[in-house]
Fold this sequence. Notes:
- By secondary structure, the protein is α/β, with parallel strands linked by helices.
- The chain folds into 2 domains: 1-86 and 163-247, 3-Layer(aba) Sandwich (Rossmann fold), CATH 3.40.50; 94-161, no CATH class.
- The chain has helices spanning 45-53, 79-85, 102-109, 116-129, 131-134, 146-158, 176-191, 203-208, 227-232, 234-240, and strands at residues 4-14, 20-30, 34-38, 60-67, 70-73, 87-90, 164-168, 195-199, 212-217, 220-226.
- It starts with a strand and ends in a 7-residue tail after the last helix.
- The model has no long low-confidence stretch (mean pLDDT 92).
- The chain binds adenosine-5'-triphosphate and magnesium ion.
- Residues 45-46, 168, 199 line the site of magnesium ion.
Amino acid sequence: xxxxxxxxxxxxxxxxxxxxxxxxxxxxxxxxxxxxxxxxxxxxxxxxxxxxxxxxxxxxxxxxxxxxxxxxxxxxxxxxxxxxxxxxxxxxxxxxxxxxxxxxxxxxxxxxxxxxxxxxxxxxxxxxxxxxxxxxxxxxxxxxxxxxxxxxxxxxxxxxxxxxxxxxxxxxxxxxxxxxxxxxxxxxxxxxxxxxxxxxxxxxxxxxxxxxxxxxxxxxxxxxxxxxxxxxxxxxxxxxxxxxxxx
Length: 247
Ligand SMILES: Nc1ncnc2c1ncn2[C@@H]1O[C@H](COP(=O)(O)OP(=O)(O)OP(=O)(O)O)[C@@H](O)[C@H]1O
Ligand SMILES: [Mg+2]
């Protein structure tokens, strides 16, 4: 059996004084796995990621990160503390610093690394993974092509060597070729043992790069199986994968 690295138990969360948006969320992520959350608009998919990342605090339940130094209860911690434990969140609006160069963007992502040589080594390491960026080090991030920006986003994400990466809608607003590239990066990063929890509107594409699929509706998890089983489930195909009912 694979080793569980992130565990949600009965998590409930919502915004401000509003109603509970997600309820009874039980979810496990294993080491090196890619798990894809799918479901209709407004189902609460992004809210699950935000509750894990601490952008909203769970109202009930527990989020446990099984770090190398033991279990850490993330529920109640602030985002910056959570990110230091070994989690990384790539939100829907991917937020590069457009008016900073590639090098500066990478340095910003590694700002918690105090040792200058260490930071330099980490930047060199990620540039091995994304060699295209090496030729663009002094270019402003905002002037790079969509595909190059995508690489910089992933390079930033892995600079602190996270053990879990949460990604909201990696395909959003990207040309098809760049979507393919993004999923290749996701698979490469996971093959190094990093666990990835992603939310994806393009359910077929998301599931085809994932080991597990989780279907959400109305703030709850309604179905969870191996990704290929989700892809082949007739009911799920009809409801969420755009396949018409046979007459
Ligand atoms: N900041 C917020 N304040 C209040 N309500 C919010 C906020 N963000 C989301 N919601 C509400 O929470 C519900 C779930 O939203 P969420 O963004 O998690 O859905 P989603 O499954 O990610 O949908 P989509 O596929 O459209 O991205 C929606 O009804 C939404 O209106
Ligand atoms: Mg969303």
